[in-house]
Write a structure and sequence with these properties.
The protein is 5% helix and 62% strand. With 234 residues, the protein is mainly β. A hairpin with a 5-residue loop joins strand 5 and strand 6 (118-131). The protein starts with a helix and ends in a 5-residue tail after the last strand.
């Protein structure tokens, strides 16, 4: 498979680089941020769906659009507890003097189960990063979390969503960092279903970045919109 092959190459065949001052990762947040997310899921069959997402990232008090990207892939629900999604992402960094864009391939492996109102889950992302004018690199992202459906007398009940994501670069990094453990994101939010096909999730996120000078943490407020196109029954 092309995705798996490219990911393996980004891990095992990274070129050696001379010691030099590397730029900071352009996706690092600065000061208080605002993140906007839009996702569309279109059913292709009972076990497959097309997943498309758009994201905009503002930092410096939500005054500066420093990053935006679009991504797409097909979700394969191999088991009730296992979903696999190969993904392609195209990313832009407006105004960044070092990196203008990045191509990224990802393999999303999500494990989840239901225990009454609780739904523990674990998302693993294997990433191959191909930034403009920088060497390629690989990154692993592990995000354990839990969803809790609030016991309210409503047709569409709100869901509390809590997660913590760890970022690990196992080999050479495309950007400057203080170690292999490059980033941590703690997130809490509430998913508010509006209808069978639409939900809104406001959330609060703490992004901690491991820079060569030490850890730096910034606060982010986000709003996520999720749209679903139901497949027609024949």
């Amino acid at each position: 498979m092309f995705v798996l092959g490219a990911l393996c190459c980004s891990v095992l065949a990274l070129p050696a680089r001379a010691q030099q001052q590397e730029p900071e990762d352009p996706e690092d947040e600065k000061q208080i941020g605002l993140w906007l997310d839009q996702g569309l899921s279109a059913g292709l069959s009972p076990s497959k769906s097309l997943e498309i997402e758009f994201h905009e990232r503002f930092d410096e008090g939500a005054s500066n659009l420093f990053e935006y990207f679009a991504q797409g892939g097909v979700a394969f629900r191999l088991q009730p507890w296992l979903t696999v999604i190969p993904i392609y992402r195209y990313q832009r960094f407006p105004g960044n003097p070092t990196v203008a864009y990045e191509n990224r391939i990802q393999l999303n492996i999500t494990l989840s189960t239901s225990r009454g109102p609780w739904r523990p889950n674990l998302r693993t992302l294997i990433e191959g990063r191909f930034p403009d004018n920088r060497p390629a690199s690989a990154r692993l992202r592990f995000r354990p979390g839990v969803d809790y459906t609030l016991p309210l007398r409503m047709t569409w009940r709100p869901v509390l969503v809590v997660s913590n994501e760890f970022f690990i670069v196992p080999g050479s990094n495309s950007f400057a960092a203080g170690g292999s453990f490059t980033q941590n994101r703690f997130q809490v939010g509430v998913r508010l279903p509006i209808a069978d096909t639409l939900s809104i999730r406001p959330y609060y996120l703490l992004q901690s970045v491991n820079l060569p000078t030490g850890w730096e943490t910034n606060e982010i407020v986000g709003i996520s919109f999720a749209f679903k196109v139901l497949s027609k029954s024949k």
